[in-house]
Fold:
Amino acid sequence: IAQADAPTDRSPLSELTVVLDLLARDPEPAVRETAAKTLAWLPVPGRDDGLVSSLGDSAVRETALATLDAVGWKPESDTGLAIVLMARRDFGGLAALGPVVIPLLMGSLRDQDRDKDSVRLRARAIETLAKIGTPEALLATERGLWDVGGVARAAACKALCQAGEAATPEARDRLPHLLRDDYDAIVRRGAAVALGVLKVYDSVEGLK
Structure:
C-alpha cells in the first residue's frame, strides 16, 4: 500500500491493479482494509466494482462501504443494491426488493460458521426469505433446519409453518428429530409448532 501511495511512474490503472490485488488476496486484514481506503484516491474504471466485490469480506466491509459512500457510488441495478443492503444488514430493504435478492440470501445460508454474528445473519436471511414468500424463497428456508446455529434452525421452523403444504418431505421428516433431539429449547418449541401446523402426527408417534 505504501508503494501505491508514493509518487510513481505507473499509471492510475496500474496502481488500481496493485491495490485491487491487495484488497482481494492479501492474507492480512489490516492490509486489505488499507487497500479499501486507498481506492478512494484512484478514480479509474474498475475501482467501484472492486469495492463492491469486497463487501463479503467481514474484515473490510465497513471500510469498503465508507469508501463507496465517500466516492458517491450509486448501484446501477437491483442486484448491486441488494449486495450493498446485505453488507449494511438492511434486511427490510432486501425484503422490499423482492425475489431478485433470493440468490444472494440463499448464498448466505451456505456459510456454517458458528460465531454469534454469522448465525444471526443466517437467521435474518431466513426470515427475509419467508417475508418474500415465493415458493422458491420458502423452499430455500428449509436449509436452515440443518443449520449449526439454534437461532437459524428456529427461524427455519417458523418459515416452514408459512410454507404449509408446500413443505418438502425432507423438511417434514426433519421436524420430529428437532423436537426430540435439539439441545435448544427455542428450536424444540418451533419444531412442535411447525409439526402442529403441518399436521405431521405420524412421524411424532414414530419417535416414541
The radius of gyration is 21 Å. The chain has 14 helices and no strands. Residues 116-132 form the longest helix (17 residues).
